[in-house]
Amino acid sequence: MRVAYVLPSIHIPSGWRSFCSGLINALSHYVDPIIFVAASDMEVATSLFPHQRVFSLPLTQRALLTDLHAWPALSAFLFEIIKRRFRRCGQGHGHGHGQGHNHGRDHDNIFDYTHGYGEIDLVHSLEAYPTGLIGFLLARELRKPHVISAIGTYAVLWANYRIHKFIYGQILKRARAIFPISQGTAALIKKHFGQYLHGVPIQTILCGNDYVRSISREAALNREFPEIPTILSVGVIIPRKGYHISLAAFAKVKEQLPQARYWIVGSIDDVNYFKQLQHFIAAHRLKDVEFLGEVSEEKLRQCYEQASLFLLTPQQIGLYFEGFGLVYLEAGAYGLPVIGTKTGGVPDAVKDGVTGLLFEPGDVEGLSRGLLLLLTNRDLARKFGQANRDWAETLTWERSARQYYEAYLDLIKI
Questions:
Q1: Which of 34, 178, 204, 360 has its CA 20 to 30 A from that of 19?
Q2: Spatial distance between the Cα atoms of 22 and 205, rounded to a whole number of angstroms
Q3: Whole-angstrom distance between the N-terminal and C-terminal Cα of the chain?
Q4: Among 156, 151, 153, residue whose Cα is nearest residue 190
Q5: Half-sphere exposure of 348 toward its Cβ, with a 13 Å CA cutoff?
């Protein structure tokens, strides 16, 4: 089976990049992937997928019809479709792609990538919109089924934009299947776009991870907890990650456990929000909070190894939300218990009362009690941490790939 994958932006480390690389590399054991990325992502894509065929499109995740800066590249893509249709009409038969007239042109026409490879069976957009728009156009021109993975915010954000809601709604309506990465994401899609989804199969396939490959099971299950109670958060500094909530909870922890410390790893993507956090720290005379910024892989490993527990308190802000929460599984790979919030896809990543604890997004009191419990009860922390390691070993990319492959088979009836 040959599947065309249309990828969102992957030029910087991100959830998109982790999702695309992990899933496609696992799926390559089941299907023959043909990968399409924005031209600006080609260098990264060829390094991420050294054994796969990678082709460039003018753009993918930037393909917003209302963005004037995107129109030159988007027009180039649409022009290729028009040329192809004229050529097909002139030939008077079949699909017309991959014919000998284009032989030797190094695939400068994006629809001639099949030359020498055979036909595509399915087009899979690895983000809902606008990447899904490009996948939809590609699938329609190739006359093949189109399926969509819904990663999180970009699967529902467009409900606030009339033009995009209509366009995205038409894409959803015509999809052969939609694959949200969490039950939380699925629920929000149904809530905001239900009128377009009648008869469209929606199958939640949870994210996978490969963190467990780099940390031995023995080391994770027998980890030593530090003498200094240490809380670790990993995630970019933006309001949606909820650091204003986690800092408020930490302030209450310090009242009863003054030796506790809090490490925050992540780039400062919202300077104003970071200033608000700094103001809170100063106003409450809160000590032992350290913003570490972006760190190396080795430094990140050390942070996980020296932490007592992992904390991240995502918030839904408008239609911005946490689609899943791979970072909770990364913590699980190290045998750490986790604390999170009941929002978006987090309840799919954290098994409440098993791998960690979940609280309502604004429940500062509950979060502080949970932190104190796991910081002072090492037996419970170890129990949750070991269960989180087991959960991380269960949610692998291989598991996700098998589920996608079985769904593909159902769709194209091979």
A1: 360
A2: 14
A3: 9
A4: 156
A5: 22
231 with 371: CB under 8 angstroms?
yes
The pLDDT tens digits for 315-348 are: 999 999 999 999 999 999 999 999 999 999 999 9
Give the distance from CA 264 to its chain's centroid.
21
Integer Cα distance of 378 and 384 in angstroms: 10
Domains of the chain: 2-208+396-412 (3.40.50.2000), 211-394 (3.40.50.2000)
Closest CA to 331 of 291, 366, 374, 267: 374
DSSP labels, 293-310: ES--HHHHHHHHHH-SEE
Structure token digits, residue 221: 């299950």
How deeply is 353 buried, as exposed, middle or buried, from its count of CB atoms within 10 A (0-12, 13-18, 19+)?
A: exposed
Asked if residue 237 lies in contact with residue 204, where contact means CB atoms within 8 angstroms, the answer is no
CB of 388 closer than 8 Å to CB of 331: yes
Q: Is the peptide bond before 33 cis (omega within 30 degrees of 0)?
A: no
**pLDDT, mean of residues 206-216:** 95
pLDDT in tens, 45-55: 999 999 999 99
- Residue carrying structure tokens 């469209």: 200
Helix (H) or strand (E) holding 88: helix 71-91
Specify whether the CB–CB gap between 206 and 182 falls below 8 A: yes
98 pLDDT band, cuts 50/70/90, is very low
Judged on CB neighbours under 10 Å (0-12, 13-18, 19+), 376 is middle
Q: pLDDT, tens digit, for every residue of 348-382?
A: 999 999 999 999 999 999 999 999 999 999 999 99
Per-residue CA distances from 217 to 233, 241, 356, 388, 392 (Å): 22, 29, 18, 11, 11
Give strand pairing partners of 234: 265
Distance CA 97, CA 93 (A): 11
pLDDT of residue 88: 57
| Residues 135-172 pLDDT 10s | 999 999 889 999 999 999 999 999 999 999 999 999 99
Q: Which residues contact 133 (CB under 8 A, 6 or more apart)?
A: 63, 65, 167, 168, 171
Place of tokens 């992502």: 41
Cis peptide preceding 337, ω within 30 of 0: no
Pair 220, 334: CB distance under 8 Å: yes
* Encoded amino acid at 246, one letter: S
Rounded CA separation 234/310 (Å): 8
